[in-house]
């Protein structure tokens, strides 16, 4: 990176950022956590950075396309339970994270540069927001896509209401979101939830191949096509805003306490 571009990224500590030749920015979640054998969890630092990074990438003239992926055993493991507990118990934390969650969705949608996601292993939580809202989403055949909101005891906010019905249809969206069912990468490709799937050994190479094609194409044509297509998502903005408000109202209710406890104790929740 040039000194000018590098300064744009000074504040990012939880994300590993690598600018590759041709203007491909690789955004890696969980690089530090994977060294300890852990999956990437969205603590307060990663959650904030995932919301902000797309604005920074949009402002960087050196970047033509972004790739987001996870390091280690999976793409993302969802929200850090300590952060979830803070949201449930602290109004100030809850309102701050609500804004970050809103910004994450709209910043991905409004980033003018195309985004490619490369998902393997578990794909849950804030990472999944970027994974499924990416312009080209790639999953390994054995990836496990899970929207875990109802299992936690809150409404499926985040990205679910804005994009799942558009990608895979309302019937499938309701089935997977209401029941908190796991979608394999192979099934996700079959129902249209992701762009394509591949073997895990091919994932990173496939992401860079597609990113390279996007970076070498007409930047105005590609970016303006993304902008026009994403108007479908912008039209669903009111549905998303409602779902996010209901999700965060749930964080103030009793069910989320049982949801967190059951996850910590590795048992099925027993909601009242």
Secondary-structure topology with pairs:
Blueprint: H1 3-8, E1 16-20, E2 24-29, H2 31-34, H3 44-59, E3 65-70, E4 76-77, H4 81-89, H5 91-110, E5 115-119, E6 122-124, H6 125-133, E7 136-140, E8 144-146, H7 149-152, H8 160-168, H9 170-179, E9 183-184, H10 185-191, E10 196-198, H11 203-216, H12 219-229, H13 231-235, H14 237-250, H15 255-264
Helix pairs in contact: 3-5, 4-5, 4-15, 5-6, 5-14, 8-9
InterPro entries: ClpP/crotonase-like_dom_sf, Enoyl-CoA_hyd/isom_CS, Enoyl-CoA_hydra/iso, Enoyl-CoA_hydra_C
GO molecular function: catalytic activity
Pfam families: ECH_1
Report on the structure:
Belongs to the enoyl-CoA hydratase/isomerase family. This protein has 272 residues and is an alpha/beta fold. It is 54% helix and 15% strand. Strand 1 (16-20) and strand 2 (24-29) form a beta hairpin. Helix 5 packs parallel to helix 6 and helix 8 crosses helix 9.
How would you sum up this structure in a few lines?
This protein is an alpha/beta fold and 272 residues long. The protein is 54% helix and 15% strand. It has a six-stranded mixed sheet with strand order 1-2-3-5-7-10, sandwiched between helices. A four-stranded mixed sheet has the order 4-6-8-9.
